[in-house]
Structures are given as C-alpha cells and as structure tokens.
Amino acid sequence: MYLFYTPYIDTIHCLSEEESAHCVRVLRYSLGDEILLTDGRGTTYTARITNPHPKHCEFEILTEEKQAKGHNFHLHIAIAPTKNVERLEWMIEKCTEIGVDEITPLLCRFSERKQLRTDRLQKIILSAAKQSLTPYLPVLHELTPYDAFVRDQAAKEQQNFIAHCYKEDKRVLQHEIVPGRDVLVLIGPEGDFSEQEVKEALDLGFVPVSLGNSRLRTETAGVVACHTAILKNE
C-alpha cells in the first residue's frame, strides 16, 4: 500500500494538492478506497476516501496507530554539502531510508557549496520516507555555520564525533559508539575540515573517528556514518 503524507491531519482531513493528484490521477484511487497516511511524526492512519478530487482528496480516518522508531536513540548527521548537489541529494535520500533523525548542512572553511535549496531536499526526504514506508521524517535544518553549530552541540547530552582524514590517533566509529545514547557525527567537505575546525571540535570534547581504511567521498561518508550508528544500536 502506498503511504501519503498528511502533516496537519489533526485538523485537516484532506490531502495536499500534490498528494491528491498522485492519489487520484496517478494511482487511480476512487471513492470508498482505503489509503494509508502518516503525519511524519510516527503515527500512521488507515482512512477511507470520501471525495476523490484530484486537487483536494478528502478522507475519513478509520484507525490510527503510533509506530515505534526502529532505534532507541537520536541520530544527527551534520555534513558539508557537496559541490555537485546531486551527490548530497543521494546521501539525504539514503540516510532517510536508513533512519536518520536529523540532518544539518554545514558551512565550513573549505566548503565549495555556500548556498542550498532546502525546499528541494525536503521533497527528497518526503519521497524517500514514503517509498520506504517510514512514518518518521527526519528534521532538515538550513545551511549552518560550522563554528556556531559545534559550540551549540557541545553543550548537549550526546555522543559527539568528528570524522576527518588527518593523520592522528583515531578509532573506528563503530568501536566508539555507546548503544542507546544519542549520536552526532560531523562530516566535512570534499577538501576536509580545516585543521582549525578539527582543533575547535576536539577542544569542545568531540571525539575524532575514522569510518574505515578507505578514503570516502563526502556523501558516502554520510551514509556510512548513518548506517554504522544504526547497526551499532540494533
């Protein structure tokens, strides 16, 4: 069954124009058909179509069920956007499928992309969540300056990691994660973090980690970090 996104289901029993068109015109749902909905916050609903209009498809709720998350911790990936935005879009799609809870694009010293259309990325998140039948949509933030971000995150009760390529003593991420505790992983741009950025993070208590023996592209590193954290907690 296809999953439709209805963020305002508490007050509005009608699909958005985009979702209505997909439901009625593309998938050919009609009067009386049952559909599966989610609010993106973990609740799924079974509903019946009462007005199959292609611009404002109305429904009545039959059942609702709060779904448990697939993991018992909060996973936050903060990553510098790639110069080729399609690579970032791919990473966000895959991390959504895997189960990331929060994504923050970082503006770093060596960042080659200094502007970002988060509205497009939100659509990719939504599409990936619906495709994988995930009732939890990750939170996506606007492009955030690195310095302000690490200072803010350092004060939170979570495991803070920075993955970088400089030669120094680092342990593999999977060996450092303590299961059940919230996790934040910083991933740098294609030119890596600057030495000053790494020092700043370490001074704030971030733990330096490796993602393995291979040197990974930025977007690959994001997916590996996400998958590693999820598997460590299963």
Kindly state the percentage of residues in helix.
25-40%
Contiguous uncertain segments of 5+ residues: none
**Can you tell me the overall shape?**
elongated
Integer count of domains: 2
The number of helices is 7
What's the end-to-end separation, in Å?
27 Å
What Rg is obtained from the alpha carbons, in whole angstroms? Answer: 20 Å
CATH superfamily of the largest domain: SPOUT methyltransferase, trefoil knot domain
The ordered H/E elements are EHEEEEHEHEEHEEHEHEH
Taking all residues together, what is the mean pLDDT?
A: 94
Structural class: alpha/beta
- Beta-strand residue fraction: 15-25%
**Architecture per CATH nomenclature, i.e. the level-2 architecture of the largest domain:** 3-Layer(aba) Sandwich
Quick summary:
By secondary structure, the chain is α/β, with parallel strands linked by helices.
Task: Please explain how this structure is put together.
The chain has helices at 17-26, 85-98, 118-131, 146-154, 173-176, 195-203, 218-232, and strands at 3-5, 34-38, 43-51, 58-66, 75-79, 102-107, 139-140, 144-145, 159-163, 171-172, 183-187, 207-210. Strands 5, 6, 7, 8, 9, 10, 11 and 12 form an eight-stranded parallel β-sheet that branches. Strands 1-2-3-4 form a four-stranded mixed β-sheet. Helix 2 (85-98) packs parallel to helix 3 and helix 2 (85-98) packs parallel to helix 7. The chain is 32% helix and 24% strand. It has two domains: 3-66, Ribosomal Protein L25, Chain P (Beta Barrel); 75-232, SPOUT methyltransferase, trefoil knot domain (Alpha/beta knot). Helix 3 (118-131) links the parallel strand 6 and strand 7. The chain is elongated, with a radius of gyration of 20 Å. The protein is α/β, with parallel strands linked by helices and 234 residues long.
